[in-house]
Amino acid sequence: MHSDTIVAPITGTQPAAVAWVRLSGPEAWSIASKVFKGWPLEPNSHRAVFGTYIYGDSGLALPFAENHSYTGEQSVELSIHGSRVSVRNLVEACRAEGARMAEPGEFTLRAFLNGRMDLTQAEAVKDTVDAQTDEQLRAANFNRKGVLRREVTVIREKVLSLIVRVEASVDFSEEIGELDKPAMKADVLSVREHLDRLVATAESGKLLRHGFRIAIVGPPNAGKSSLMNVLLGEDRSIVTDVAGTTRDYVEEVLEVGGMPVILIDTAGLRPTNDLVESLGIQRTHTMAANADAVWYLYDASCGWQSTDQNTIDSFDRPVEVIANKIDLADPTVGRPISTQTRQGLAELLGSLTEQIQLSPDGPLINLRHKPLLEQAGKSLSECVAAIDAEAPDDLLSVLLADAACHLGEVTGETATPDMIERIFHDFCIGK
C-alpha cells in the first residue's frame, strides 16, 4: 500500500449538476473527517452519509474500507454540486489537510498495484471512458470484467506446465524417464494454435478502438461534402456550387452497426495552379493512402471521364466507385446514389456494415498486446523447431520461459516499471 493519500475529481468537466471527488490512501477517512461536517465517529464502508463541507457546500460522503474500494486502499468518494469553484474548493481543502493531487491514471494504477485488476482490465477502464459507440462499450466491458486476462492466463499456465514437464525430465530423468518429444511437440503446437486465435483478433480490436477510416475523394463538385453531411445528419462540411471549396480535409465519426466509422471529406482532385488548393490535393492523396477504405465519388450527370479512371489507377489500394446525382442522370459506372433524394444511401451503409463486421464474441487484443503475443508465439515456434532438431531439453525450457514472460507482460505479471508507466501515461486525471 502507498504511504500518501491522493485526491482528484472523478467526474467530467464542470459545471454540472453534481460532481464527485475521490480521496484514496491511508489518511483518506481522516482527511474526510476534517473537510466534511457530518463524518460519523465510526464510518461504515459502502454506507453514505449526508453533511456539509467546511467551505459551505453540501453533499454525500461514501467511505470504502481497505481492500473493498476501487483502488484497494481506504478511500472516500465525496459528492458536491458541480460548479468549478465548489470542486476546486473541495480539492484544495483536502490538499490542505495533507492529500496530494492525483497523477493521471493514478487511481487505476493503484488498483493494479494492489491486485484489484491486471493490466488488461486497467486498459479496459480507459477504453470504457473513451467509448463512443455501443460496440466499443461492449468490448471494453468484456475486458474490464477480466475475459482477456483469463484467456491469456490460461495460455500462460499451459506454457508453465510445459516448462515443469521439461525441467522435471532434466532433473529427475531416472525416476520419470526421458521427455516424450512427440507428445511435447503436439502440446506446444496446441498452445500455439490457441495463441494464434487470440492474435487474430488484433485487427478487429484496432478497428473498434480507432475506427474504420474512409477517405471520400473525387473531382470538385461531385458531392463529397454533401455525402458526408447527409450521412452525419448535419452540415459539417461547406457545400457550394463553387469548385474547390474544400481546401483541407474534414473528418467526423459516424456510428455504423455499433462501430466507429471516420468519414474524411477531402479536397477535390483536379489540375490547379492555386498553391493552397494544391496542398489540399496533396493531403487528399495522403488521407487516401492511410485510410482503411477509399470512396471515389463522381458526378453521374457529367459522366465517367478518362481522368476519373486515371485518378483511381493512381491509388495503391482498392477503390469503391460511387456515382452521385443519379436523380439527374443514369450512371455508367459505380454504385448509384443521390445525396439529394437519398436514393442508394441505405444500400451504401448496408455494404459498409458487412465490411466492418467484428470477429465473434470474445476478447479483443489491442496494439500493445499484439507484439507481445506474437513474440510469445515466435518462441513457441522456435521450441517446436528445437524439438525437431533434437536440441537439448534445457533449450526448450529457455524458449518456453521466454514465451511465458511475454504473456506475463500482457497481464502485468512480468511487466517492467517503464511499461506500466507508458500504459497509464495517457489516462485522464481522476481515473
Overview of the structural elements:
With 431 residues, this protein is of the alpha/beta class. It folds into three domains: 6-102, 2-Layer Sandwich (Gyrase A, domain 2), CATH 3.30.1360.120; 123-201 and 364-425, Up-down Bundle (Four Helix Bundle (Hemerythrin (Met), subunit A)), CATH 1.20.120; 215-342, Rossmann fold (3-Layer(aba) Sandwich). It has 16 helices and 13 strands. The strands form two sheets. Strands 3-4-5-6-2-1-7 form a seven-stranded mixed β-sheet. The two termini are 18 Å apart. The model is unreliable at 238-247 (pLDDT under 50).
Give the gist of this structure:
47% of the residues lie in helices and 17% in strands. The chain is an alpha/beta fold and 431 residues long.
CATH homologous superfamily assignment of the largest domain: tRNA modification GTPase MnmE domain 2
Task: Determine the mean pLDDT.
Answer: 89
Main sheet makeup: 7 strands, mixed
| Rg (CA only) | 29 Å
Shape: flat
Helices and strands, in order, run as: EEHEEEEHEHHHHHHHEHEEHEHEEHHHH
Q: What proportion of the residues form beta strands (DSSP E)?
A: 15-25%
The CATH class of the largest domain is identified as Mainly Alpha
The CATH topology label of the largest domain is Four Helix Bundle (Hemerythrin (Met), subunit A)
Number of domains: 3
Low-confidence stretches: 238-247
| CATH hierarchy: architecture of the largest domain | Up-down Bundle
Strand order of the largest sheet: 3-4-5-6-2-1-7
Structural class: alpha/beta
